[in-house]
Amino acid sequence: MRRAYAEVPSGQIHYVEAGTGDPVLLLHQTPRSWTEFRYVLPLLGRTHRAIAMDTLGFGESSPPRINGVESIEFYAAGVIELLDALGIEKASLVGHHTGGIIAVEVAACYPDRVDRLVLSCTPLVDEEGRLGRPKVDHAPVQQDGGHLVDLWRARQPYYPDGRPDLLEAFIIDALKAGTRRFEGHEAVARYEMEHRLPHLKCPVLLVGAPGDNTYVDLPRWAAALPSSRSVKIDGGMVPLPDHLPEQFTSCVQEFLAE
Asked: What is the pTM of this model?
């Protein structure tokens, strides 16, 4: 795997890549980083040029240079900036949770830049999906470090038993994001996806994990995108790509090979 930074109008975007061939860009959930795909990259790199980026404001990428609130549109613009910097005219996108929503925005607004779209455990944030969305990763900093315990325990029900390493990886990325760790979730809650879905023109794969809280949206996705395909990864939970990388990568590779 090769690590690098790309100079873009919004600052610097950190990315990691493996392999050669048709490009596939991997987009992580909030407040994670490219490390969510650290086990997927070498597997997907056997068949493609697999690239995992840190969304602007997360991981090692530059913090946002914007006035006001962050948005999915802002994150998506960073994706296009990275593709431009790497000289990639067209790529397939694989997004997990927030990354899937960013991928929808990119595919809808820049259809000529997206070959195929994989939406993994992605919430459908139309008018219905925006109602009553809970606050996620809101843990005010405490002098005794209790906020770290709060973050851990809030996520723990959605993570597999016996894998504290996955929660540790989440905590590391949450600390890197600092007090902005929840900003991606807030951007999701404001996003009006219903205006973008009619503009999706590329093939779409919907990946669901029964242990993920977004699994309830899978039937609604299938109804909203009737030409899409759906696949279920049994045993999957919120950290699907780094929990079950072989199964996750296999689903992606089969779809990209069609």
From this structure: 0.97
